[in-house]
Amino acid sequence: MKIEKERKYLLRGLPDVPYTKIVLIKQYYFDTKKENTSLRLRTVEDILSIDSKGIHPLKHIKNYITFKEVKGELSERNELEERVSKEWAGVLINTMAYKMVYKLRYYWPDLDNNIRTHEIIIDHFIFPECGLLLAEIEEKAPNSNFAIPIGLENVIESDVTNDIRYLNCNIARVPSCVKVG
What we know:
Blueprint: E1 2-11, E2 21-30, E3 37-51, E4 54-57, E5 61-70, E6 76-84, H1 86-95, E7 98-107, E8 118-127, E9 133-139, E10 156-159, H2 168-173
Antiparallel strand pairs: 1-6, 1-9, 1-10, 2-3, 2-7, 3-4, 3-5, 5-6, 7-8, 8-9
């Protein structure tokens, strides 16, 4: 199981940067017996790829099953993720009880042309918290220095990394529990 390390921020607006990709994400959260755990099916539909040559429509759909477990602080979680077939995704959606989240995900560009030590994404929620904007900065290289990129600091309302209300599984389970920037 890998350890996911990330920081999460509530935003008051969408940063004005040239995003590299936009995807539609549907997340289905299943009930778990153990506290501080989540089990989800994520369906990712690539919508657009954006590069120096222009905007390219995409229509790729991928499905993943993910288990997460909080160990101590919310900024670090154990994570196990596997890609699953369209058939398995359909079985889970049609037979399991779940709560769901729909969101658009914007991928932050590498404006410095450096080797990426962090992945930066912006999630724009469509359901259940329409309009909620969250930025996630996930560590990709062990023990890398953390810095908020230029362009993001201007739209950050607050750091919600350790606020359990802003975990996607809780947004799905308890709609209206969060402040929409």
